[in-house]
Amino acid sequence: SDRYDFKTIEAKWQQRWAEEKPYKVSEDPSRKKYYVLEMFPYPSGRIHMGHVRNYSIGDVIARYKRMQGFNVIHPMGWDAFGLPAENAALKRGIHPATWTYDNIAYMRDQLKAMGLSYDWDRELATCDPSYYRWEQLIFLQMLEKGLVYRKETTVNWCKSCQTVLAREQVIDGCCWRCDEHVLPKTMYGWFFKITDYADELLEDLDQLTGWPEKVVTMQRNWIGRSEGLACDFPVEDSQEKITIFTTRPDTIFGVTFMSLAVEHPLIDKLIQGREEETRVREFIEKTLIEKQRLAVDEEPEKHGVFTGAYCINPFNGERVPIYVANFVLMEYGTGAVMAVPAHDQRDFEFARKYGLPIRPVIQPEGNHLAGETMEEAWTGPGKLVDSAEFTGMDWQEAKKAIIDYAADKGFGRPHITYRLRDWGISRQRYWGAPIPIIHCPECGVVPVPADELPVTLPGTNDPNGSHAPLHQQEEFYSTSCPGCGGPARRETDTMDTFVESSWYFARYTCPDNDQAPLDPAKAGYWLPVDQYIGGVEHAILHLLYSRFFTKVLRDLGYLNIDEPFTNLLTQGMVIKDGAKMSKSKGNVVDPSDLIDQYGADTTRLFSLFAAPPEKDLEWNAQGVDGASRFLNRVYRLVNSSLDCFQEEPQDIRISDLNETDRALYRKTHQTIQRVTDSIETNFHFNTAISAVMELTNQISRLTAEQAARIHRTVLRQALEAILRLLFPMVPHFCAELWEQTGHTTLLDQEPWPTCDPEALKEEEITIVVQVNGKVRARLQVPAAIQEEDLKKQALADERVQKFTGDKKPRKIIVVQGKLVNIVV
Ligand code: ANZ
Ligand code: ZN
């Protein structure tokens, strides 16, 4: 057959790479390192097209950088804890560990069948005690530094499943698994103090020039820094005061009521014994239940209830009625808002609904707002009115002046609030890393001594072992206190799986280290990750947590960097029939079928050629066929030209070549230039591949006669360039042809081709310029010059103008590539 035998070829090279380990690396201070990393997969069972795309992109970069001489680290592992393993265990009656490790074994084979150039000796699985024991140690070291704490919070609790649910697992107020009503429950949980790093996490975003701007913006908004005023409003007839946070101190004379979050701790005191008490309590209860029902980001309709109590605006001594409102968040600012309906839309709607006064205190230029006629809040700029001594000030100026005034009088202070919350890491599930803590009735919370780590998950070595939540496994939790030796109880929460993925990229630098989580020398050599590649769905949490962990590990002395990922590429989705490929849509293409039918190289080539990495990739069967046909064409082309590899190559000077040879030589070097440029600018492999296709076409178009006479070295260089340039994308294919053409080196160790600058210069020709038939000048012009440009240049030439003078040319005759005759 005239199709190349990809099955044999791919198996052969995969075996060689497994045996010879050309992708195994170690630290070498004499060489520049390059760390390329794709987000590691969850071992869900099989790889999908999204993986194929992600890993193909990473592999091209790894191979390209290797050919450029970098010491390239390119590792792979498994994000192996998490819920699906437990669900599968429930459904199929197998242990989560069995399910996970079986999947890993299967998916590892699938990745190997793609020919990805990983250093497999660095593989890690986060569910392995050899990994999570170090995570437990990091937890303890963070605890010691005050970066871990335990507090009571409200969680989503499913009574029938006896577990906390994540926000996404509450659907219409019910448990996604059993459909039971989900209720708020206060319980203890462990937290990482990510807010301690809020400022640094925000500031260092400026360093991340190699990240997509939209990801940086999403992180900035997530951290959500707000500057403003914290101000105390004394409660009437009471010693209490309510502290509010506002970003608009300039509007403080426009306050007409106060709104508290339903969870605000002062509410009880405010309403006790008042006639409003029952109504308020009912409102709070209703609101708490309603909160459970809301989808993430869904805004409830604004409701509130008057408490009967008043507080005093310290700026003007006015009485301000206190409301409880469902749109005030306890977790933000101080959980209390001074309401200014004239200048805040939420307050405006609330005021209209409950008939509260609207009092404008910021007047925009050329307009006069009146509370009775306003149709919406004015949130723009303006000058202060009805604001005592601040009247007449510009709003920006007034912000400062009012903060200063409050600070001076002692009832307020400048305040910065972050939207970012501390990271709750407690999960009540089985399949996660146990939190290494012991609760002792005498000593309280006691850390597990470091030399007793790991606290292993029970039952993982036994396929029939229990995988019930740890709080149901007495053998696990009953223990003795490391402090007093008395009976004690182990912590039964496990860690959020995002903890594992927050530092795995660092662990790859010493995956077998059994002395410490990290080796600062090794980490120092390899980190930061130069190029990270993954889905944009991780734009916030995973990337933020990894940045946080990097700073923590730096402060614990393990790392000497501030940021983990210098460059980030967020690849687009793989879509089919206009929708993301997913099981639920039934439009999944299984990469294994493709690899079976077309081979790994064709599959890789298709995924790289169909779209630039950051764009969505639309699946189409013709595209795969096209990729396959192209590779077969190159295969035949090289095989029909084997003789050019038999002679010793000669030195080439472009000026010595005849026209056909010169054209191919130029094209070869232009292609090298274009491919390199396309990769360097945002990894646009699709245009890189197009360039190689053009070069291939130019060779294929040679007539039999031209082909027979073409300069052997020029042809050889062209074909070698094709193999080198395509190698990162279709490695088995190129490795095989490289060998078939008599090379004994591995292409990985071959340098990336460089281009001959002489060849990139545009070809120039000499044109004779006549005036009325007499030769007056000779011009050096690009060979491809347009006729109009040539005429202009001829007319503009001084030597020519001497003879044409002011006379208007009657006629200009152009003989292509030779002559211009101007008749005057
Ligand atoms: C008075 C005011 C007047 C406000 C005005 C805005 C406009 P950002 O910018 O997002 O930080 N706020 C404060 N704490 C809140 C909470 N716990 N729940 C809901 N809203 C809260 O928003 C800050 C503004 O959001 C604050 O400034 C406060 O309303 C409100 F013309 O105070 B403002
Ligand atoms: Zn004790």
Topology record:
Elements: H1 6-20, E1 33-38, H2 49-67, E2 71-73, H3 83-92, H4 96-112, H5 129-144, E3 148-158, E4 163-165, E5 170-171, E6 174-175, E7 182-192, H6 198-203, H7 213-223, E8 225-234, E9 241-246, E10 257-260, H8 267-271, H9 277-293, E11 304-312, E12 319-325, E13 336-339, H10 345-354, E14 362-363, E15 383-384, H11 395-409, E16 412-418, E17 423-424, E18 426-427, E19 437-440, E20 444-447, H12 474-477, E21 478-480, E22 487-490, E23 494-495, H13 497-500, H14 504-507, H15 520-526, E24 529-535, H16 541-555, E25 565-571, E26 574-576, E27 579-580, H17 591-598, H18 600-609, E28 617-618, H19 621-639, H20 659-680, H21 685-700, H22 704-709, H23 712-726, H24 731-740, H25 757-760, E29 764-771, E30 774-782, H26 787-796, H27 798-804, E31 811-815, E32 819-823
Parallel strand pairs: 1-2, 1-24, 10-12, 24-25, 26-28, 29-32
Antiparallel strand pairs: 3-4, 3-7, 5-6, 7-17, 8-9, 8-16, 10-13, 11-12, 14-15, 18-23, 19-20, 19-22, 21-22, 26-27, 29-30, 31-32
Helix pairs in contact: 1-24, 2-18, 3-4, 17-18, 18-19, 19-21, 20-21, 20-23, 21-23, 23-24
The structure holds ligand ANZ and zinc ion (ZN).
Ligand ANZ binds near residues 247, 251 and 329.
- How would you name the CATH homologous superfamily of the domain at 226-418? Valyl/Leucyl/Isoleucyl-tRNA synthetase, editing domain
- In DSSP terms (H or I, runs of 4 or more residues), the helix count works out at 27
Strand content: 15-25%
Number of strands: 32
Percent in helix: 25-40%
Which regions contain 5 or more consecutive residues with pLDDT less than 50? none
The spatial strand order of the largest sheet comes to 2-1-24-25
CATH domain class of the domain at 226-418: Alpha Beta
Give the overall shape, derived from the CA principal axes. Answer: globular
Distance separating the two termini? 67 Å
Ligand list: ligand ANZ, zinc ion
**Quick one: biggest sheet?**
4 strands, parallel
Mean pLDDT: 94
Rg over CA atoms: 35 Å
Instruction: Please tell me the CATH architecture of the domain at 226-418 by its name.
Output: Alpha-Beta Complex
- SSE class: alpha+beta
CATH domain topology of the domain at 226-418:
Isoleucyl-tRNA Synthetase, domain 2
Catalytic activity: tRNA(Leu) + L-leucine + ATP = L-leucyl-tRNA(Leu) + AMP + diphosphate
Keywords: Aminoacyl-tRNA synthetase, ATP-binding, Cytoplasm, Ligase, Nucleotide-binding, Protein biosynthesis
Pfam families: Anticodon_1, tRNA-synt_1, tRNA-synt_1_2, tRNA-synt_1g
InterPro entries: aa-tRNA-synth_I_CS, aa-tRNA-synth_Ia, Leu-tRNA-ligase, Leu_tRNA-synth_edit, M/V/L/I-tRNA-synth_anticd-bd, Methionyl/Leucyl_tRNA_Synth, Rossmann-like_a/b/a_fold, tRNAsynth_Ia_anticodon-bd
